[in-house]
Write a structure and sequence with these properties.
Two copies of one chain form a homodimer.
Chain A (H helix, E strand, L loop, with lengths): L2 E4 L3 E7 L2 E8 L1 H9 L5 E7 L5 H9 L7 E3 L6 E6 L6 E7 L19 E4 L4 H10 L5 E4 L3 H6 L1 H8 L4 E5 H8 L4 H10 L4 E5 L5 E5 L2 E5 L13 H15 L6 H18 L7 H4 L2 H15 L2
Parallel strand pairs in A: 1-4, 1-8, 2-6, 4-5, 8-9, 9-10, 10-11
Antiparallel strand pairs in A: 2-3, 6-7, 11-12, 12-13
Helix pairs in contact in A: 1-8, 3-5, 6-7, 8-9, 9-11
C-alpha cells in the first residue's frame, strides 16, 4: 500500500436524463480509492453501517484496495440522493442521511500510518487534521473540503490547510475560500494560506493547477455522452494522487502536470456509466489511451 | 490587403464593475479588424453615420486598416449599451439602436473582391451570402452568426454555412444550431451542415476547434483582471483569421491550432481595458509573448 484515502463510503440514489438508480455504491472515498487503484496500492479509512453489502466490499477488494480501515458500525450507511437537470449542469439534493457517518472518527490501522501518500476527502477539518497527525512519514498530503466547512469552520480549516501539499477544490469553493471572484487572484490568496499547490476543478471545463511559480491548465475531456457526473471530482482527486503515489513523486512540476491529466482521465471515465460502474471494466490500457488523446487534442 | 472583414462598426456604452464608459468605439467588425491588423493587411466593409468621429477612423487607419469599404450614410451610427453583472458572467442589454446599420447593404470596393481571406461578422445570413458571392478568388471564408438568425432564418443560414470554411460561434449558439446539448454531438451535426471547420467559443473557458478528423481545445487565458469583456469573441475571430491570412494558410490542422491560440491571445488582451483601448498600445512582441505563455501553461 502507498496511498491512504479517508472519506465517505455511501449509498447513492441518482437520477440523470439517462436514467435512475435507486441505490448504488458511492461516496467520495469510494470514487477516489477506485480511481487511484489503477495507479497504486490504496487503503481506505471510512465507516459503513450494517447494511453495507458484501458484494460492494468484494468489488473494492477486487481492485486491490485494503479494507482494514473500513469500520463497520451499528446503524445504516450514509445515504445521499440527488437529481440532475436536463443539461446536467445543476443537481438538486433530494435526501442526505448521514447515519453512521455522523459520528465518523477516522482510526488508522498501524500499517496505514507508515504510508507516504494521504488523500483527505471532504470531512470536518479537525478530523482531517487528526488523521494527518497520525501519519508518521507522510510525503505528500492532498485534501478536499466544501462550502459548508469554509463557512462554518473557517479558522479550523485554515489551520488544517497549512499542513497540506495539495488542496483540491472546485472553482466556487476556491472563490469562497479566498473571498474573491477572479480565479487567478483567488489562487494567489489561497497559496498564501499554506498549501504548496492548489488544484481548482472546473467540472466539464477541466482543472487548473496553481503553484507559486505559475499554473497549468488541463481542459475537460469532451465526452459523447455524460451518463452520470456523480463522483467525477473525487475520481479526479484519486487519479491525481494515485499517479503521484504510483511513481513515488513529490510535488515536481512535471509530475504534477501529468497527475492533472490522469485526474482528468479518471474523472471523464467516471461519467461514462452510472456510479462507479465504469471502474468495473476499465483497464490501464484505456487510461493510457485517453492520456494520449489529451496530448493529441492540446498540442500546438 | 489580404483579409476582408464585414460587420458592424458601432458606438457602445458599457458598464462593468470596473467602471463605466458612456460612448466608445465598438462593433464586431471593429474588434475583429483591429485584432487581425496585428497579423495581416485588413479592409473593412461596414456602415457608419454622420456622427462617426474622425479620430475613430484615424485610429483604424493608423493600424493599417483599409477604410475604402467603410460607407458613410445619413443618420446615426449603430449604438449599443449594456451592463455586466458583478462576476461579469452575464450582461444585460440596455439599448440597441440599429440606426444606419438597419439598412446595411455591404458593398465591396473592386480591390476587396480579389482578396483571399474573408471574415463575415454577424449580420443577416442572406447578406453574408451576397458578400461571399462578390469575392472572386476567396481561399478561406470564416463567419459568425447569432441566436436570432438561427431561430428566425434557419434555412437561409444553412444555405449560407455550406459555403464557409470556418464557422465561429459560441457554445450556446452551437447547441441551438444543432438542437442538442452535448457539444461533441452538436459539433458533429454542424460539420455535417457544410463548414469544414467549427470553432466553438466558450468565453473564459477558451475555445474548441472541431473538424472531421478530430478536435483541439484551447483553454482561456487566466487574466488577473477582466476590465471589459465586450468584443472578446470578435477579437478572437480577428486573431484567428488574421493569423491564417498573415501566413497564407488554408485549413491545415497545425495552422488552425496556432490560429486558435492567436485568437485566444487577442481575446484576452481585449478584456484588459475598456472597449478597443488595449489595441492602441499592444505590440506584436506582447502577442508573441502571450502565445509562448499558452505553450508553457498547457504543455505536459
Amino acid at each position: 500500500m502507498s496511498l491512504v484515502v479517508v472519506g465517505s463510503v455511501a449509498y447513492d440514489g441518482v437520477e440523470t436524463p439517462h436514467g435512475r438508480v435507486e441505490r448504488m455504491l458511492g461516496g467520495a472515498c469510494t470514487y477516489a480509492a477506485l480511481a487511484a487503484s489503477f495507479f497504486t496500492q490504496v487503503g481506505v479509512v471510512a465507516v459503513v453501517g450494517e447494511d453495507f453489502e458484501a458484494q460492494d466490499a468484494e468489488f473494492l477488494a477486487s481492485r486491490g484496495i485494503d479494507l482494514a480501515g473500513l469500520e463497520r458500525a451499528p446503524g445504516k450507511t450514509f445515504f445521499w440522493a440527488g437529481v440532475y437537470s436536463e443539461d446536467m449542469n445543476e443537481r438538486t439534493t433530494l435526501r442526505t442521511e448521514l447515519n453512521v457517518f455522523a459520528n465518523f472518527q477516522p482510526r488508522l490501522p498501524a500499517a496505514y500510518r507508515r504510508q507516504p501518500y494521504l488523500l483527505l476527502g471532504n470531512i470536518q477539518p479537525g478530523l482531517q487534521r487528526a488523521v494527518r497527525a497520525q501519519m508518521e512519514a507522510v510525503r505528500l498530503t492532498g485534501g478536499d473540503t466544501m462550502n459548508y466547512w469554509i463557512r462554518e469552520t473557517r479558522e479550523e480549516l485554515r489551520e488544517t490547510l497549512k499542513e497540506w501539499d495539495v488542496l483540491l477544490i472546485n472553482d466556487s469553493e476556491a472563490r469562497m475560500l479566498a473571498g474573491c471572484h477572479n480565479l487567478r487572484q483567488a489562487a494567489q490568496r489561497i497559496l498564501e494560506m499554506g498549501p504548496g499547490t492548489l488544484v481548482v476543478k472546473r467540472g466539464e471545463y477541466g482543472a487548473i493547477l496553481f503553484h507559486p511559480r505559475g499554473h497549468f491548465i488541463a481542459p475537460g475531456y469532451l465526452l459523447e455522452d455524460v451518463f452520470d457526473p456523480t463522483g467525477a471530482g473525487d475520481s479526479f482527486a484519486g487519479g491525481f494522487m494515485g499517479h503521484l503515489a504510483g511513481c513515488g513523486a513529490g510535488a515536481e512540476p512535471g509530475e504534477l502536470r501529468r497527475a492533472m491529466i490522469y485526474g482528468s482521465v479518471m474523472g471523464s471515465f467516471c461519467c461514462e456509466r452510472f456510479g462507479v460502474d465504469r471502474f468495473r471494466t476499465l483497464t490501464r490500457a484505456e487510461i493510457d489511451g485517453r492520456f494520449q488523446e489529451f496530448q493529441s487534442f492540446t498540442a500546438f
